[in-house]
Amino acid sequence: MRLQHLKQIGDGLVAGDPARAAAKAVIVTEVERLLWRIWNGKAKNAGKSLDRIRAVMHHFRGERDCRKSIAPSRKLWTALRALNTYLIGQSAWLVNYAERHRAGLRVGTAITGGTANFLVNRRMNKSQQMRWSRRGADLLLQVRCAVYNGTFGVEFGQKFHPANDSFPPTAVAA
Question: How far apart are CA 130 and CA 110, in angstroms?
């Protein structure tokens, strides 16, 4: 989605003079190249495309804001920063979709995301999206998957009695 947004912003840049037209062509080409690199599992090389886009962005400096919206060049800078932050944090975990596609495997993450949302929604009884830490989400989903698969131990739901509990389990039940 980030790349589609970046592509739309690049297409919306105003190319009033030849220098801006050439810069816009470079931006559109590099966004397409970014899409190809990420699809083919080469996210670590995406910095080259981002640098090429940044190198021509000075042509759009001083672009005026539209009446009710932000100038496309400012939107592009914001989208580039967001994409760069995403790639820095996620490049090690990005999937090589082209390789999976050639192998006949699924390439969409909607099924995985939908399953994760289902498991989290059932547990938390929530109605809106939430942000999770990677560790917290992983631990919660491991437990929920084990429960749904029937592989979670028989002790699930049993009260934990610490070793220094003054009441033995039989006294608590009575």
Answer: 17
**Would you say 128 and 134 are in contact if contact means Cβ atoms under 8 Å apart?**
no
- Ramachandran area for residue 125 (φ above 0: left; ψ -120 to 50: alpha; else beta): left
Local structure of residue 164 (DSSP, 8 states): T
Among candidate residues 24, 23, 26, the one with its CA nearest the CA of residue 12: 24
Alpha-carbon span 95 to 106, nearest angstrom? 11
3-class SS of residue 128? coil
Which is more confidently placed, 95 or 129?
A: 95
Contact 53, 35 (CB under 8 A): no
Specify whether the CB–CB gap between 41 and 95 falls below 8 A.
yes
C-beta of residue 98 within 8 angstroms of C-beta of residue 40: yes
Separation of alpha carbons 19 and 11, rounded Å: 16
Amino acid residing at 43:
A
For 115-168, write each residue's pLDDT tens digit.
Answer: 777 766 665 665 556 666 778 777 877 887 777 777 776 555 444 444 554 555
Say what angle helices 18-39 and 46-56 make with each other, to 10 degrees.
170
- Looking at residue 1, the DSSP 8-state letter turns out to be -
Burial class (CB in 10 A: 0-12, 13-18, 19+), 59: buried
